[in-house]
């Protein structure tokens, strides 16, 4: 499915200008139909899956309880 620059920006929650810059620097693949750039949405699936896995990993790490240190002595 092809998206316009505006639709791509909404899909990735980024500003239109950033998407346009990424297209012009060839960091996002797009085709130009003579009037506008069209971006294939499927090229982002792997990236979005990796971001989701990273988010889950960070949540797991942050929610892990801190073990008590056996060598800590109470100074009171």
Automatic annotation (TrEMBL):
Annotated Helix-turn-helix domain residues: 2-50
What does the record give under GO molecular function? DNA binding
Pfam families in UniProt: HTH_17 (PF12728)
Q: Which domain of life is it from?
A: Bacteria
**NCBIfam families for this protein:** excise
Q: What name is this protein filed under?
A: Helix-turn-helix domain-containing protein
Origin organism of this chain? Robertmurraya siralis
């Amino acid at each position: 499915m092809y998206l316009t620059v505006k639709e791509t920006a909404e899909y990735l929650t980024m500003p239109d200008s950033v998407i346009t810059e990424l297209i012009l620097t060839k960091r996002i693949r797009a085709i130009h139909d003579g009037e506008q750039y069209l971006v294939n949405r499927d090229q982002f699936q792997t990236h979005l899956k990796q971001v989701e896995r990273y988010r889950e990993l960070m949540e797991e790490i942050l929610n892990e309880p801190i073990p008590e240190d056996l060598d800590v002595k109470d100074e009171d």
